[in-house]
Amino acid sequence: MWFLLISIFICCSILKYFQKLNYWRSHGVKNISFIRLISNVLKRQMGVALGDIYQQLYEEKEPFKVALSPFLTVLILQDMESIKDVMIKQFENFPERGFYTNHRDPLNTNLIRLEYEWWRPLRQKLTPVFSPAKMQAIFPTLLKVTELFASKVKTTMEEEENGELAIYDLCARFTTDVVGSVAFGIEFNSLEDPNSQARRQGLKIFDYVWHPILDSLAGHYRAVKNFFNIKLFKPEISGFFRKLVSNIIEYRQKNGIRREDLMDTLIELKQHDERSKQEFALSLELIVGQVFGFFGAGFETSSNTLTYVLYELARHPEIQEKARENVKEVLKNHGNEFTYENIREMQYLKQVINETLRLHPPAPYTVRVCRQPCSLTTKRGSLKIPLGTKVMIPIYGIHHNPQYYPQPHLFRPERFDANMELGCKFPSCAYMPFGLGPRICIGERLAKMLLTLSLAMLLQRYRFSCCPATPKELHFDPRKMLVLSSKEKIVLKVETV
Ligand code: HEM
Ligand SMILES: *[C@@H]1O[C@H](CO)[C@@H](O)[C@H](O)[C@H]1NC(C)=O
Ligand SMILES: CC(=O)N[C@H]1CO[C@H](CO)[C@@H](O)[C@@H]1O
Asked: What family does this chain come from, according to its entry (predicted)?
């Protein structure tokens, strides 16, 4: 019985595969071998591998290419107009990333993964959580955690021989604490205690039950997976987060405590929804999912960015000096204190951050899935996109296109100079470290604030330089598909200024 069913399934899949092959061929879309794509991705970081394909397409002037398998059609986009179409203009046709979701497992009902019908009301609700006013309100808490981080850098540096330290670990502990305490009022304490339980759970977030390739394939067989109730995360992780969040909510509600953090806003939304009996009420389950999602999307992206900025500054001492002068000058005009307003005036430091996010975008690609058949128009004519096509947007590749960024592998913050001749003129959509359109990163403001403040404070106090243990160039870990994460330890020499 099973054998028969499986044989029928395989036969249908193969038939469908040839049908698809024919379809794309007859529409003049070139194919790349799916097997080659997968084997490439197992060897190299996904975003970087896609970047190479992108560059090849750009040179061949092909707007896109397709990689076909019996199960999945992947369209790799090169044409800028089509990218804007998919992400912005035709968002309604491409509103999801096609990840697997199981609504009985709270951890994967988060903004990143959710299907359109669930995502839309939730995103509307959560947008105010990251408003400029909220960012201003949490600034004092952020400042406290950042102070702790800066002093931890000093004590670690003094403990190490020659003041040489592996910077990523500290940065990751810092961003864990930031997302925990600033966003959710959870004292993770990982800066003080590197082995804290939350820190260990935090590290496990990316320990998938399966390989990420399977995760993205499973998005296409939701019904089957949901029928068998397969969960993506280990029950102990769901349990840990659920307990953590419900304790916080209960404690605050009972004692009438407000901490002016993002969790306050989530609780308010929940109470409001309970009173007004809304259809998409923010339940405890949904809050747990969001906390987990923000944590997963926020901590590794920002800790890697912080590490890469320090690495690039260590390799370019003159740029580091200029950034330090910029910080000092702004601080001098404001009584030597860091405020929500004055860190925004650190123009050159912001250019340095922008250029780092261009050169090493921590989220090196993003995905959309076609949920309604539609057409993309390019200079080469119009193309109908079938339902279920997975569309890849090669952020890393676009950021390294020499047509937009001359000598793309060089670190040159001048590219983002608004006034100078040097500032390069790339099309507005050729820079997207946070994505584009309605599904753009919701944490962009928080990430930028966290990066600017912590870098300003570090530069004010310390000088970073290369030492023999510093890698000459970066290589990215292929096992981390979703984030650019350095394979080598990034060791830098740190001294007080
Ligand atoms: C340097 C730091 C960060 C970078 C480079 C980054 C980048 C991105 C990118 C590229 C996306 C996909 C956008 C798209 O598909 O168009 C995304 C989505 C997302 N990010 Fe970030 N992110 C960062 C920090 C954060 C932080 C700190 C948080 C939250 C606390 C966060 C929460 C999210 C969420 C929830 C989504 C999904 C949004 C949705 O689908 O509606 N991110 N991020
Ligand atoms: C950095 O990039 C953003 C686009 O994400 C842009 O709006 C901003 O003006 C840039 N900032 C600087 C200082 O170049
Ligand atoms: C299925 C498949 O891979 N078809 C073609 C894809 O493109 C290559 C050339 O790049 C052909 O050799 C394959 O036959």
From this structure: Belongs to the cytochrome P450 family.
Tokens matching residue 433: 């470290």
End-to-end alpha-carbon separation of the chain, Å? 74
> Which among 67, 70, 32, 60 has a CA at the least distance from the CA of 391?
67
Looking at the CA of 70, name the nearest ligand.
3
Q: Which ligand is closest in space to the CA of residue 84? A: 1
Q: Hey, how many other C-beta atoms are within 10 angstroms of the C-beta on 152?
A: 16
Rounded distance between C-alpha atoms, residue 408 and residue 412, angstroms: 9
Q: Is the pLDDT of residue 243 over 80?
A: yes
Q: Compute CA distances 109 → 113, 163, 231, 273, 431, whole Å.
A: 6, 43, 11, 18, 29
The predicted-structure confidence for 408-447, as pLDDT tens digits, reads as follows 999 999 999 887 666 677 888 899 999 999 999 999 999 9
270 touches ligand 2 (CB under 6 Å): no
Whether residue 145 contacts residue 178, with contact meaning beta carbons closer than 8 Å, is answered with yes
Q: What is the pLDDT of residues 247-265, one digit of tens each?
A: 888 888 888 888 778 888 8
441 has binding-site annotation:
yes
Contact assessment for residue 360 and residue 466, using Cβ atoms and an 8 Å cutoff: no
pLDDT on residue 209: 47
Question: Which is nearest to 483 in space by CA: 218, 83, 168?
Answer: 168
Range from 282-286, 337-341, 372-376, 417-421 carrying the lowest mean pLDDT: 417-421
Q: Which ligand 2 atom is at minimum distance from the Cα of 354?
A: 1
Query: What number does the ligand 1 atom closest to the CA of 123 have?
Result: 41
Q: Which of 447, 285, 420 is nearest to 362 (CA)?
A: 447
In 27-131, where does DSSP find H-type helix? Answer: 34-43, 46-60, 80-84, 116-126
Going by alpha carbons, the residue nearest to atom 16 of ligand 1 is: 435
Interatomic CA distance for residues 331 and 350, integer angstroms: 15
Evaluate whether 67 touches 33 at the Cβ level (below 8 Å). Answer: yes
Nearest-CA residue for ligand 3 atom 1 is 33
Closest residue to atom 10 of ligand 3, CA basis: 32
pTM above the 0.90 mark?
yes
Atom number in ligand 2 closest to CA 434 = 5
Per DSSP, 61 falls in state: T
Give the span between the Cα atoms of 91 and 69, in whole angstroms. 25
Q: How far is the CA of 220 from the centre of ligand 3 (A)?
A: 24
Class of residue 300 by CB neighbours under 10 A (exposed 0-12, middle 13-18, buried 19+):
buried
- Answer yes or no: is the C-beta of 351 below 6 A from any ligand 2 atom: yes
Closest CA to 302 of 174, 205, 196, 215: 174
* Burial (0-12, 13-18, 19+ Cβ within 10 Å), 339: middle
Return d(Cα 490, Cα 477) in angstroms, integer.
13
Token pair listed for 106: 């709270």
